[in-house]
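notes to self, project folder thing:

trying the whole complex as one job this time. last attempt i did each chain seperately and stitching them together was a nightmare. two parts in total, labels are on each line so i dont mix them up again. if this works i'll redo the older ones the same way
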Amino acid sequence: GAGVSQTPSNKVTEKGKYVELRCDPISGHTALYWYRQSLGQGPEFLIYFQGTGAADDSGLPNDRFFAVRPEGSVSTLKIQRTERGDSAVYLCASSWGQEETQYFGPGTRLLVL
Amino acid sequence: GQNIDQPTEMTATEGAIVQINCTYQTSGFNGLFWYQQHAGEAPTFLSYNVLDGLEEKGRFSSFLSRSKGYSYLLLKELQMKDSASYLCAVPHSGNTPLVFGKGTRLSVIA
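result (full assembly):
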């Protein structure tokens, strides 16, 4: 496909479980971003990759959250010991590089029971 | 840091014009973005302003005043499909992750 894709589209899990959310950026985009959006709010930045390395992870709320992008394309956001407060839509975006327009995927709706 | 303020909700009539305002405070300015987000969907890019003035793109226009820390999105000839949230965003301290406002939820009524 031509756009950013994310899987799964929906994820329901129990408190304390581990989840992985996947993002496939637009082919050729070197920059990849993760955001989290709660109901009625704008997206909040979590982490940003330039290539394989995390250029800025200052938005990760705590050490339960981790993200990787081992080959500079697909990225996985990992959440350990999930809490009910982690319930949100997790959005991924990609761009050609720094200071370029970001294009968003459809998001993964995470519900922690 | 960044602070972005925009109205929470607006209502306008089909065929009319609506202006959605955004004020921002930022430690360094590297442009301002507007995104449209329909309920349950991803944000889609509308416009990017880095210089003062009005940028027109079809029915949508975006204005920026850097000295006033102010932008607006102008939607003309409103259609029902324009009912969505409109998000104002600025890059974070010169780096590229975006800081978003809470969004303005626009309802277009007949």
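what i see at first glance: The two ends of chain B are 41 Å apart (CA to CA).
need to look closer tmrw
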